[in-house]
Structures are given as C-alpha cells and as structure tokens.
Design goal:
Elements (H helix, E strand, L loop, with lengths): L1 E4 L6 H5 L14 H10 L4 E8 L2 E11 L4 E9 L8 H17 L3 E7 L3 H10 L2 E7 L2 E10 L5 E3 L1
Antiparallel strand pairs: 1-2, 2-3, 3-4, 5-7, 6-7, 7-8
Helix pairs in contact: 3-4
C-alpha cells in the first residue's frame, strides 16, 4: 500500500538519490531542485516521500499557487525501478486525498509538458482532464470533485 511520508533527515539522502529513466529527464526536475523550491516556498509547498511499506519509491510535491488561487500537483516522480507497478496511480490518489482532507479543495491543477504522453495518460487515468489551456509548453489539467447528496465529495 502506498503512503506519503514527511521528508526528514532520516530519508533525505534517499529522496535525493531517486532516479528516473534518461528519456524522462526533460520532463521531470530533480528532487534536489524540487526541495529547493519547497524550501523557498515553504508556506505553499508540500513535499512528500512516496513509500510502499518501508521502501521509498518516489516523490510528490503538492502546492498552492497564489496568483491563480489553485492547489496543484507541482512535482511528481516514481523511481525508475518502481515504475509500471501501479505506485504512481496510488501516490497521485494519496496526494489528491491529502489536499482534499487538509484544505477541503474542490479541484487540483497540474501542468504536463508537451510530449510527456506517459504522464498525461497517468493523470487522465486517475481523473484529470485537460482544461484547454496551454502555457509555457505545458498542457493544463484539472482534477475536479463534485458534491454528493451526503455532502461529501467524490471525483466527477
């Protein structure tokens, strides 16, 4: 089962050593770069290590983008040795659940670099849809919740 854990001194080096396939380098920034951003934007960045049991399998960073008042999936990667095992999908759902539970969000946005069809397919598989906006060579996608009769929320 996938879970998100805080990044601490105990797992920092392992998080920094996560690796992706060479062809993915143009789509994904390093965890060091992401953690530097999380440090600078510490009030609006929410980085997590992705674990399956006691095994670190990836990294996810969620955030709040003040200029647009949007909660976002900011950074995401699964280590190359753990890809294609379903962990990415589960980690995305954990991230979305975190934002829902902590901030009561109704939508989560992300951007996918043009040409990153694998990520686009993954995001679509969990319920993200394209908004039609393309900016800075990225296609904007959104995950929408809808209110149910019991006043809880589920995905549209």
């Amino acid at each position: 089962m996938v879970e998100l854990r805080e990044i601490t001194s105990a797992n920092l080096e392992d998080v920094l050593n996560l690796q992706i396939f060479e062809y993915q380098d143009k789509f994904v920034s390093s965890t060091a770069h992401a953690l530097a951003q999380a440090y600078v934007y510490h009030e609006t960045a929410f980085p997590f290590a992705v674990y399956v049991g006691d095994t670190l399998v990836g990294f996810i960073m969620l955030g709040y983008y003040k200029p647009r008042s949007q909660y976002t999936l900011w950074k995401f990667m699964i280590d190359k040795q753990y890809q294609k095992k379903g962990y990415g999908k589960e980690a995305l759902m954990c991230g979305i659940a975190y934002l829902r539970e902590k901030f009561n969000v109704r939508e989560v946005y992300t951007g996918v670099l043009l040409g990153n069809d694998i990520a686009k397919h993954l995001y679509t598989s969990v319920g993200f849809v394209e908004t039609g906006m393309i900016e800075d060579d990225m296609t904007e996608m959104v995950y929408l919740f809808r209110e149910t009769k019991e006043h809880s929320y589920s995905h549209l």
